[in-house]
Amino acid sequence: xxxxxxxxxxxxxxxxxxxxxxxxxxxxxxxxxxxxxxxxxxxxxxxxxxxxxxxxxxxxxxxxxxxxxxxxxxxxxxxxxxxxxxxxxxxxxxxxxxxxxxxxxxxxxxxxxxxxxxxxxxxxxxxxxxxxxxxxxxxxxxxxxxxxxxxxxxxxxxxxxxxxxxxxxxxxxxxxxxxxxxxxxxxxxxxxxxxxxxxxxxxxxxxxxxxxxxxxxxxxxxxxxxxxxxxxxxxxxxxxxxxxxxxxxxxxxxxxxxxxxxxxxxxxxxxxxxxxxxxxxxxxxxxxxxxxxxxxxxxxxxxxxxxxxxxxxxxxxxxxxxxxxxxxxxxxxxxxxxxxxxxxxxxxxxxxxxxxxxxxxxxxxxxxxxxxxxxxxxxxxxxxxxxxxxxxxxxxxxx
Length: 399
Known about the structure:
By secondary structure, the protein is of the alpha/beta class. It contains 14 helices and 15 strands. It has a seven-stranded parallel β-sheet with strand order 10-9-8-11-12-13-14. A six-stranded mixed β-sheet has the order 4-3-5-6-7-15. Strands 1-2 form a two-stranded antiparallel sheet. β8 (222-226), α10 (230-241) and β9 (245-250) form a beta-alpha-beta unit. The radius of gyration is 22 Å and the shape is elongated.
């Protein structure tokens, strides 16, 4: 069986972005982002996973699926999102191709939930991992692939499920898009582009705004990436390319790529923050990271630093960030994630001139979407063949 097939995407009429966004629920937020990625244009979908695996250094699990007790692929449920009909059919065709004799049950988008009757019959699910999925699953469930990177919605697993189910997700696949979004916010804040954009809307030739470009050039400045995973690594790569000195923390080890000057463990964050001109939150949400960026942290960070957050909103105490921005301790903030989400209309962050807010969409873009489909299909192939899976997650740790 060939491992890749080219599926060119045809143009089609697509629902408006406003309507799709309004239909989003918390449980389906990643699906909504993926839908927005297909809202314009057309693209050829090559389902060969090898370039993605190589370029983003995707990791295989240590244990092949065939060695997991109870592995017996027979029936897999697949959540199909309502992107254009042509793409849906091509994705279905690729999944059918790699599934072989394994039955696929395709289910439509409905708040990211699968029908209870379907859940009771399948041994694997490609969709969104939620408490409802775990509660309704049968004992024969052995694999769940989460279209989202974040696993914070995948809660309520029993001990038996933690021991028997292999979980995988979209980790690293959205890294390039999120990294570019992060750098875009950094450049915009450092050059005071929001003020110029406001003047443009008011049709003002506001040359006096040049006096407010005070952060300085990025070359030679230090960026601290908190969370040197797939996303953090891509951010670090781009910052280094801009001439920045990059340091980072990670929970697992002190190893890192050549373009990161120093990699510390998680407990070194405050020490490294004292010399950082830019701090990037690229952390997953776990009990240890919840509320991590609080008043104590902002008091510790180098005065006048820029704070960028593309991890999870609950890792930052919003009121403490507001206070740090108001005092000038933090020069500016770029936030793709907030606490809570959506950010309430009365939040002071909305009206701050030195804050950029985007609504948890930094992974948007058809390239991220393409990678998501390719790796979902590749993991199905590996599941059926009993091979090591890609992007496995330790649900006990949350990543």
